[in-house]
Design a protein that fits this description.
Helix content: 25-40%
Shape: globular
Number of helices: 11
Distance between the termini: 83 Å
Number of strands: 20
Radius of gyration: 23 Å
Bound molecules: S-adenosyl-L-homocysteine
Structural class: alpha/beta
Largest sheet: 7 strands, mixed
Strand content: 25-35%
């Protein structure tokens, strides 16, 4: 009897049996299994830690369970785990070490990027002395896990403030009680941060500075995934520049160091107000236009406007696979107009952050657009997200950002 009790305590977690398709996904090192690939799961509480078994009952590892998401299973270990909060703390420390080794010339970067750091449902960013976090899954929302996250970030980062940013839509989808975005710890929720300080085209520069309000803005504040692309774009930028979908001026401010004039366009007035504050902070003059970039590019192209440098960084057009055709059409239209407007020797920096649009799709769209405007382009750089947004080889979803730098060569 005692023996039996000991073994059931050892396997206190509930177990989930997967179809052969589900098991094959895990064996291919993808951490997600969809609900449709679960063949047995009895009374599993939301956010539970579960043992994963294949059809024959063979143990495949440990996962976090969601009772509401279509992605019911997110693997956390290929073995057993004794203590989830301790494992989360250990993985956060490993994620910090990874950045310490790879990230340079910035006081701001993503510290934890969910699956790419083996912490599904947790995103943490550092903006100088302010740390922001987002919790996206039931399991990460558990009080003991939250406590471990907070403690580890306090100890390892020693920030002046830790802010939780809440996406109400995601909490709703995960059937988690609503929460406001708020300061979790410390005193500071806004700050000034800096990036691309030392090396920009070999020149020593002070870097570009930005305001960050941890409680405002889209995503987690700034688009840190573009950090290395800003520096790359600045390397080729010259003459008159247009930054379409400029948000708070990430590209525009970097271009301003190299260009005779810069215009930034965005449909969000709030984003442009912050962009103007950022321009002042860097003692730059940039023209900001509030409007629809599609309409503006159409008008400018029709009026034969010319630029030497154009950046296109639209929001994700393809949120699902079904939107793909329409999204490709959208990318083509934008890029075609920009390609038309470039002066000889001009630079096009063009981005897509839709995961469903592959690197190959994006290149094909660009080739199509170039054919339609009868111009030749050299691809000088094929880039992705900055190194603090790691890409996992077997998880295509982590390879979402594409950034091409092209030079008109006709
Ligand atoms: N390049 C920016 C990030 C762009 S995110 C950076 O590096 O920080 C996409 C931006 O497109 C958002 O700021 C959003 O407000 C804006 N946007 C969305 N639809 C738009 C439209 N039709 N016209 C202009 N801007 C738009």
């Amino acid at each position: 009897m005692p023996k039996k009790r000991a073994s059931s305590a050892e396997h206190a977690e509930p177990s989930v049996k997967l179809s052969s398709r589900g098991a094959a996904r895990l064996q291919a090192r993808h951490p997600w299994v969809y609900r449709s690939d679960i063949i047995e799961a009895n009374d599993i509480p939301p956010g539970a830690i579960v043992r994963i078994l294949d059809q024959r009952g063979k143990f495949l590892g440990t996962a976090l369970y969601s009772s509401s998401s279509q992605i019911a299973i997110r693997m956390i270990s290929h073995g057993s785990i004794a203590d989830l909060p301790a494992l989360v703390a250990e993985r956060i420390r490993a994620a910090i070490t990874y950045r310490t080794e790879l990230v340079e010339n910035t006081d701001s970067y993503r510290i934890v990027f969910s699956e790419a750091d083996f912490l599904p449902g947790l995103i943490v960013d550092r903006y100088n002395d302010v740390v922001t976090l987002q919790i996206l899954t039931q399991a990460m929302d558990a009080a003991s896990v939250r406590e471990a996250i907070l403690q580890t970030l306090k100890e390892e980062m020693q920030p002046a403030g830790i802010v939780e940013r809440v996406d109400p839509r995601i909490r709703d989808l995960e059937q988690l009680p609503p929460l406001p975005s708020r300061l979790l710890w410390g005193e500071k929720s806004s700050t000034v941060f800096k990036m691309n300080g030392e090396k920009m085209n070999g020149d020593e520069t002070a870097g570009i500075r930005f305001h960050c309000d941890g409680l405002e803005g889209q995503k987690t504040g700034a688009f840190l995934d573009q950090r290395e692309n800003y520096a790359a774009a600045a390397q080729y930028a010259h003459g008159e520049a247009l930054d379409a979908f400029c948000y708070q001026g990430g590209f525009a401010l970097h271009l301003a160091a190299k260009c005779s004039s810069v215009t930034g366009v965005d449909s969000s007035r709030l984003a442009l107000e912050m962009a103007e504050k950022n321009a002042t902070l860097n003692a730059r003059e940039i023209e900001w236009i509030e409007g629809n970039a599609f309409d503006l590019l159409r008008e400018y192209a029709a009026a034969n406007r010319r630029y030497d440098t154009i950046v296109l960084d639209p929001p994700a057009f393809a949120k699902t696979k079904r939107d793909l055709e329409k999204a490709l059409g959208g990318y083509k239209e934008l890029n075609l107009r920009a390609m038309k407007m470039l002066r000889p020797g001009g630079i096009l920096v063009t981005c897509s952050c839709s995961f469903h649009v592959s690197g190959a799709d994006f290149l094909e769209v660009m080739a199509d657009a170039a054919r339609d405007v009868h111009r030749s382009f050299r691809v000088v750089e094929k880039r992705g997200a900055a190194k603090d947004h790691p890409m996992l080889l077997n998880v295509p979803e982590t390879n979402y950002l594409k950034c091409l730098i092209l030079i008109v060569s006709d």
